[in-house]
Every structure is written in structure tokens, then in C-alpha cells.
Design goal:
This protein is of the alpha+beta class. Helices cover 23% and strands 23% of the residues. Strands 1-4 form a two-stranded antiparallel sheet. A two-stranded antiparallel ribbon has the order 2-3. The longest helix is centred in the last third of the chain and has 10 residues. The structure holds FE3-S4 cluster.
């Protein structure tokens, strides 16, 4: 599974990095970045939760 964040839409709510720190981190501009190429299997559930919880709906699953 792969994910990406649309930097234009991210408002820095940091819910993703709280729910799934294995995959998301906040950068210097307080925008979420994806820190892994492939989401580890044991982080997939938390990652999906982050996708659903993002208030701006700016996390996209690009590959299942
Ligand atoms: Fe941005 Fe959504 Fe995360 S707004 S910081 S991608 S929860």
C-alpha cells in the first residue's frame, strides 16, 4: 500500500502523524509528509484511519 499527501490541501492538522507516526511526519512548514515508500503491513490499519480522519481529505491511497 502506498499513500501521498496533497501539500496544497493539507492544513497541518497533524491527525495523520498522531494516528500513524510510522508513515506520516510534519515537516518544517507544518505540512504532512509521507516518510515511507511502502506502508508497513502492521501500519495499514492506522494509515487507513488517518486517510478517513484527515479533515481536508488530502491523503490519497495511490496503491493498494
Ligand atoms: Fe494534513 Fe490531513 Fe495530516 S490536513 S496534517 S494530511 S490530517
Amino acid at each position: 500500500m502506498k499513500v501521498k499527501v496533497d501539500r496544497e490541501l493539507c492544513s497541518g492538522d497533524a491527525i495523520c502523524s498522531e494516528l500513524c507516526p510510522e508513515v506520516f511526519e510534519m515537516d518544517d512548514e507544518n505540512i504532512a509528509i509521507v516518510i515511507v515508500d511502502e506502508v508497513p503491513e502492521d501500519a495499514e490499519e492506522a494509515c487507513r484511519e488517518a486517510v478517513e480522519s484527515c479533515p481536508e481529505s488530502c491523503i490519497e491511497i495511490t496503491e493498494e
